[in-house]
Amino acid sequence: MSGVGPYTFVLPSISFCLPSSCSADDLGKAVAQLVGSYVIANNSIVTLTDEQYCFKDTDEKRILDGPDVTVIVVLSLLGVLIVLATIHEAYRTYCGINFDSNADGKLLSALHCFSTLSNGRKILSMKVSASSAKDNFGCIHGIRFFSTCWVVLGHSWSLMPYKTMNPKAVLTVSAWQL
Questions:
Q1: Can you tell which superkingdom this protein's organism belongs to (predicted)?
Q2: Handedness of CA 165, 168, 169, 173 (dihedral sign)
Q3: CA distance 100 to 97
Q4: Annotated domain spans of the chain
Q5: For 25-33, which contacts have Cβ atoms below 8 Å and span 24 or more sequence positions?
Q6: SS3 at position 40
């Protein structure tokens, strides 16, 4: 795979499902024979194959150990809590029953904390007024800001070689490696 560079897999590519009796070399030879040496807009079609990208389905059954079962059980219980809380809130909203933490009791108030409807409303809210402070997570705006900064920085860095006159100079001069 000497022809593989940092931008090899950014370019359009195609994957194939083949019988397990075929190897990566067989696929490379077949595609090279079919495609030949076509040149489209000064770009040639190149076939890159390697055994490390070949995945074979095995008949071995996966054995779940203690930590696997624990994670599955905990996430399942969390999922059940979320579904029950969301259904309960949707039912109460549909029937027009108001939420009162004193009248509902601690169990229903705790269950209400897992509701997707109320938490989604709080997370997606853009209000920053003092009156809506209880319906808003204070740190969510900071998380949005840093997420936006990382996306802009990442796209700027990854697209920089395409916007320069000599893309290879960016990779050789920079201390970062892609």
A1: Eukaryota
A2: positive
A3: 9
A4: 1-60, 66-126, 143-173
A5: 25/49
A6: strand
